[in-house]
């Protein structure tokens, strides 16, 4: 999504999650319960261990108003409901920067 950098975390060839960070200059995580560096394991029950489901899950963030993340933070799994408006900081509108 435009407001999250999702970096695959691998164990050899196997992806076991996506490390989440806000894009530079955006405060995407300030109002959501996500924290920079969280590892997403699932989004809306789509496993983030298969490339096809990763693409589908990230696409959902562009079309849904909310998403349920299963994350691992400090080694502990957590379930977090996130409003896409919280991530964009724009009440659901896409954030576009002009120079």
Automatic annotation (TrEMBL):
GO terms for biological process: protein secretion by the type II secretion system. InterPro entries: PDZ_sf, T2SS_protein-GspC. Gene3D superfamilies: 2.30.42.10. PROSITE patterns: T2SP_C. This is Type II secretion system protein GspC. Signal peptide: none annotated. GO terms for cellular component: type II protein secretion system complex. It comes from human gut metagenome.
